[in-house]
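Below is how a single chain appears once it has passed through the pipeline. First comes the sequence as given, then the structure the pipeline wrote out for it. We keep one example in the README because the format questions we get most often are answered faster by looking than by reading.
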Amino acid sequence: MFRICQLLLLTFCLAIGSYARSSTGDSVLVILDPSLSKDNFSIFFKGLEEQGYELTFRAPKDVAPAIMQDDVASFAHVILFTPETKTYAKDITPQSLVDLLSKNTNVIFALGSKQTPLTSLAYEFSLILPPPGTPLISHFPERDTPATVIPIEVPSDHAALTSGLSPVWYSGVSFALGNNPLLVPFLNAPPESFAADTTEDSGADALVEAAEKGGEGLWAGKDMSVVTGFQTIDGGRALFVGGVELFSDEFAKKEVTKGVEAGNAQFARDVAAWTFQESLVLRVDSLMHHRVNETTPRDQYTTNDRVVYTTHISKYNPKLNAWEPYSGIQDMQLEFTMLDPHIRTALPPVPGSPGTYSVEFRVPDRHGVFKFVVNYKRKGWTHLHSSTTVPVVPPRHDEYPRFLSAAWPYYIGAISTSAGFVLFSALWLAGDDRDLKKKKTAKATE
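Resulting structure:
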C-alpha cells in the first residue's frame, strides 16, 4: 500500500511538472492582428499549450480581456503578433506595456516594416530600426526563395538556445542595438545581408558608397540583430522579433536544404522559454553573516572583526517546476561598502554544499554604516541583487589589547628607565660615605 501511494505521489508530481513551466505563471494573452490567422501559427501555439500554458486570444481593438485591471496585470505573459497594427484599444498603450514589464509580466513584440506604435516603442529599448519599408535582404546563399526570405545560422554557444540547431528561416526587418547592457541578442543578421526598399540590385551603388564612408547610413552586416531580448532590472523580460513569420508553420516545416528541416520550431520555443522566465532564472534564497567561530549574525560589528558572509542561490528547473540549488556561478563578487566599496572580494561556491557561496574577510579599520552588497548581472541571466546594512563601531574601552607588539620598543624604554632610576636611588641612598667617616675618626683621635 505504501509503495502504491509513493507511485501515485510521483505521478502527481510529474504531472504538475509537465504543465507548470514558467516561474511566474501560465496565463498568456495573445493579441493577434486581424490580418493574421491563428492557424498559421498552430505549431507555436500548440507547443505552448502542450507545456501547460493557458492561451487567451483577442484582437488589438477588443476591450476584453484587459491586459491590466486596477493596476494589476491580468496575465503572466503577453504576445503581441501585431506587426502592422496602428490602432489599439485604450488598455494597450506604450506606457501600459512598459508598466507590464515593471510588474514582472513578460512580453513578446513582433515588429514589421511599417511605422507602428510598437516600432516607436522599440526605440525606448535602445533598438534602432531602419527607415520604414526597408526589410532585410540577402542574395546569399543561392536558393529558390525570395531575397527577403533568408536562412540564418543560429549561434551554438548561447546559453538560452538549444545547441546544434539547424538554420532558421527569417523574413522581416533588422535593427541596430544601442549601448544598453540590458539587451540580450539572440539572432543576428547574416554578414552579407542589408536593409533596402527593393529586392533589385539597383541600389548597390548606394551600399558601396555608404560602405566607403565607414558604414554611415548602412543598415547591413552581422552587427544588425533580428531577434533580441530585453531584461528589466526588476526581472521582467521582453522579446523583440523583426518578423512574425519566424513563428509561422510555413517556416517551421520548410527545409533549409534537402532532408534538413529548419530550426524555427525549436528556436521559437527556446526564445519563448527565455521570455516567459523558464530558462536562465536565478534567485537568492537566503543570506547570512556572522563573526568567525560564531553562528548568529550580530546587530553591529567591530573594526577588524573577521566576518563570514554566506548566501544561497537557486535556479529554476522548468521540467520539475521547482527551484534547485545552483553552484554554477564562478565570477560572483561581494562588496562591503560605505558610499564606495571598501572591500570587493570573490564570492565562490562552497565545495560539497550545492547552492552555497561563502567568503571570509576582515572588517576594515573604519567605523560607520556599511552594506553587504551582491550585485550579479550577466546577459540573459536573472539579475541577482541583495543588500544588507550593518553598522561598524570602534572597540569598547575594555576591548582594546593590553599589549601591542609594535609598542615593545616603548615598553623596553619605559622599563629600562624605571629600573635605572630605582638602581640609582638605591645606590645613592645606600652608598658608603668614606670621607665623612674619616673626618669623624680624626676628630675622635684629637
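Residues 282-393 form a domain with the Immunoglobulin-like fold (CATH 2.60.40.1930).

See the next section for the split statistics.
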